[in-house]
């Protein structure tokens, strides 16, 4: 199993293959980048429900500490199954469980509103105005956490017994071209 | 490898890349690949903007055009599928996939590629039962009907994907597979989106086509968007072979790109360290494309896919070792996706807005090259031929009797019709604040009627191509000019052209007011179909 050593010993960004785009410039080269910014409560890092995703103790990837260890999932195609079957396990939250939808107590998820038919585009005058377009308001620590960490597998057999209307075809057959 | 997945992008590329950078610094390190699950909005100019099925108020240029022009470059390989809010004319140029900008790859109507050995498939659009069994008949300039139907999933794409036999690692669909919500925290989902309850309980939310594909492909990961909520599920498939462990799919749907929303997820996906770090074609998929090439249908009439029911001489188009070897030899054993992006239309210039920019049905040189390599048919070439020679288009009129109570002439310049009807049925439910925006926007529907302007010259196009280095500069012979294609405006009124059911071509006579669902039947053409009963039955599915 090579999972813990996935990252090839190449530069941190994918190199340009022969004739390739070069996978673009490095993120590090983005203007205005100035290194990690200290955590702020606004980011949700002050929350006990979040593991600080930086630092050697809490690197979100590669510690193979999966809550589903011993599960029956098959592994990937490129090696033997990883423990728990999840190739990229994440660090577990010190709170014992990750929030299913990734909202920290300090973050309100607005715009998940009432059942009105409307456009999926953002509103400029919602109940809670978007005050800032700064990138930090776009980032959420849950973006780095295992979204499947708290889930138990559900069998297709169990669900298909309850529900059957998954087929696309609902009407008469049309003409045949062949 | 480390993969970032984004939900509905809505043209917010800058924000997504910036957030990705932020995420990298916060812990996991560099990301190797970004997957976008639709509503990408690859808008290059004002004409593209008019091909998006959104009210005019939401037609923002956003940031993609800067990547198209070469002003910016995607900092990480980005692969995306189409959703229901796209610059449909742009994506239509690339039915088999291709580069929409350097380092940004569109998977096509359906497609499979490989990156670092990870097999990534996807299907563009959303499911609507009433269009599912039609051919790919739409072309620009779109009507109020085709601007929406263009992004509806077709059975041929699902059929092709169901010919795949080899294991799939990652699959993308814009709308969720039907039933997937039963495999995750349904209670939390309904708490967040309570108005999904009835559809979830009735098992009618989501795409049955995607569900079929999920059942068939059983990918390790499946990513979706569309419903603007983060939702994870863990699906344990039934074992196909008792000696092998049952496959499982990790499903994740993400929100749209806005502050404080769950629109991005970084995960680790197992890859093959020996595989090349550039994008590759998938040989099984190419073989299937070649095998199914004769099944291309550019008509509006309904059809079913071949099956083993005694009516077809062939129904299995799956790839064999032998056929895959043949295709591989055709490609000289080189599966690398060529970096052959080229600028084909004039790019938006904020200092010189061209609201009247002409819309052209373009043959994209990437598609031409791809089709030439594999002996495939470019759907757009077929569509153009069909429009020039209407008898090739399989007489749609014979399939459906269309009685129009409106004898008005089709609009000459009417390409901007996406906002003419009341509520886009393909838009999903959102918050009440969004509805306010929607209401505000409806009445201005006809404010930007398309009129022709000067088409960008070959010189212009070359200049754009030359502005950045890793872009293929087209020889003049490959640049599609207005002359070679014929004017889309002229074509709009071509006598004998099959009339589309529900067409909006005569909408110039429609009053400029909001058309509510109640009023719509009075204002639209009265259509009588032979198969009206079928439509009535399946239209119930449109509620999602």
TrEMBL record, chain A:
Protein name: M-phase-specific PLK1-interacting protein
Provenance organism: Echinops telfairi (Lesser hedgehog tenrec)
TrEMBL record, chain B:
Keywords: Hydrolase, Iron, Manganese, Metal-binding, mRNA processing, Nucleus, Zinc
Positions with biased composition (Basic and acidic residues): 514-523
SMART domains from the UniProt entry: DBR1
The protein's required cofactors: Zn(2+); Mn(2+); Fe(2+)
Annotated Polar residues bias: 412-424, 442-466
Location of the region described as Disordered in the Swiss-Prot/TrEMBL record: 387-466, 479-523
Cross-referenced Pfam families: DBR1, Metallophos
CDD domains: MPP_Dbr1_N (cd00844)
InterPro entries linked to this entry: Calcineurin-like_PHP, DBR1_C, Dbr1_N, Metallo-depent_PP-like
Bias type Acidic residues, positions: 395-406, 429-441
Transmembrane segments: none
Domain called Lariat debranching enzyme C-terminal: residue spans: 235-380
Compartment(s): Nucleus
Similarity remark: Belongs to the lariat debranching enzyme family.
Name of this protein: Lariat debranching enzyme
């Amino acid at each position: 199993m090579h999972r813990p050593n996935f990252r090839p010993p190449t530069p941190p960004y994918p190199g340009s293959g022969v004739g390739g785009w070069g996978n673009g410039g490095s993120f590090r080269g983005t203007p205005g980048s100035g290194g990690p910014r200290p955590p702020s409560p606004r980011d949700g890092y002050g929350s006990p429900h979040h593991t600080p995703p930086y630092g050697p103790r809490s690197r979100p990837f590669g510690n193979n500490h999966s809550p589903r260890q011993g599960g029956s999932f098959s592994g990937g195609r490129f090696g033997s199954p990883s423990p728990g079957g999840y190739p990229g396990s994440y660090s577990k939250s010190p709170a014992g469980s990750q929030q299913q939808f990734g909202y920290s107590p300090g973050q309100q998820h607005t715009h998940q509103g009432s059942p009105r038919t409307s456009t999926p585009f953002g509103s400029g005058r919602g109940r809670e105005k978007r005050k800032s377009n700064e990138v930090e308001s776009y980032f959420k620590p849950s973006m780095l956490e295992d979204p499947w960490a708290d889930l138990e597998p559900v069998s297709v057999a169990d669900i298909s017994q309850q529900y059957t209307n998954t087929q696309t075809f609902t009407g008469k057959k049309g003409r045949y071209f062949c | 490898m480390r993969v970032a997945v984004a939900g509905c992008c809505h043209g917010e590329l800058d924000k997504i890349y910036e957030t990705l950078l932020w995420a990298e610094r916060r812990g996991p390190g560099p990301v190797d690949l970004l997957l976008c699950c639709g509503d990408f909005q690859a808008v290059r100019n004002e004409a593209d903007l008019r091909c998006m099925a959104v009210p005019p108020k939401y037609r923002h240029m956003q940031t993609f055009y800067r990547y198209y022009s070469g002003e910016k470059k995607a900092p990480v390989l980005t692969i995306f599928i189409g959703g229901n809010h796209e610059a449909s004319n742009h994506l239509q140029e690339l039915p088999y996939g291709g580069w929409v900008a350097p380092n940004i790859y569109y998977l096509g109507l359906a497609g499979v590629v490989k990156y670092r050995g990870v097999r990534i498939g996807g299907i563009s659009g959303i499911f609507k039962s009433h269009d599912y069994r039609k051919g790919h008949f739409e072309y620009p300039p779109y009507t109020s009907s085709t601007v929406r139907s263009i992004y509806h999933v077709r059975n041929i794409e699902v059929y092709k994907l169901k010919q795949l036999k080899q294991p799939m690692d990652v699959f993308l669909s814009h709308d969720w597979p039907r039933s997937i919500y039963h495999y995750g925290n349904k209670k939390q989902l309904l708490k967040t989106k309570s108005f999904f309850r009835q559809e979830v309980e009735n098992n009618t939310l989501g795409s049955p086509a995607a569900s079929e594909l999920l059942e068939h492909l059983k990918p390790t990961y499946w990513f979706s968007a569309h419903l603007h909520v983060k939702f994870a599920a863990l699906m344990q498939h039934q074992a196909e072979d008792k000696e092998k462990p049952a496959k499982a799919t990790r499903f994740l749907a993400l929100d749209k790109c806005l502050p404080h929303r769950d629109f991005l997820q970084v995960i680790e996906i197992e890859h093959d360290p020996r595989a090349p770090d550039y994008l590759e074609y998938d040989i099984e998929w190419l073989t299937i494309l070649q095998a199914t090439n004769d099944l291309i249908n550019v008509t509006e009439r309904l059809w079913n896919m071949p099956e083993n029911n005694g009516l077809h001489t062939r129904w299995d188009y799956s790839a064999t070792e032998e056929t895959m070897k043949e295709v591989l030899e055709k490609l000289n054993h080189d599966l690398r996706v060529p970096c052959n992006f080229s600028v084909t239309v004039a790019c938006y210039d904020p200092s010189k807005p061209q609201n009247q920019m002409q819309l052209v049905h373009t043959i994209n040189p990437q598609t031409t090259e791809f089709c030439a390599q594999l002996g495939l048919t470019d759907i757009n070439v077929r569509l153009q031929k069909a429009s020039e020679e209407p008898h090739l288009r399989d007489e749609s009129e014979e399939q459906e009797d269309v009685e129009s109570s409106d004898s008005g002439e089709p609009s000459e310049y009417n390409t901007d019709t996406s906002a003419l009807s009341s509520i886009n049925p393909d838009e999903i439910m959102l918050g009440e604040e969004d509805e306010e925006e929607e209401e505000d926007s409806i009445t201005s529907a006809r404010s930007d009627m398309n009129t022709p302007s000067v088409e960008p010259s070959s010189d212009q196009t070359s200049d754009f191509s030359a502005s950045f280095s890793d872009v293929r500069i087209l020889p003049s012979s490959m640049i599609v000019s207005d002359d070679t294609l014929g004017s889309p405006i002229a074509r709009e009124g071509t006598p004998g052209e099959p009339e589309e059911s529900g067409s909006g071509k005569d909408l110039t006579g429609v009053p400029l007011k909001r058309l509510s669902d109640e009023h719509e039947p009075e204002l639209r053409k009265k259509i009588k179909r032979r198969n009206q009963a079928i439509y009535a039955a399946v239209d119930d599915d449109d509620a999602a």
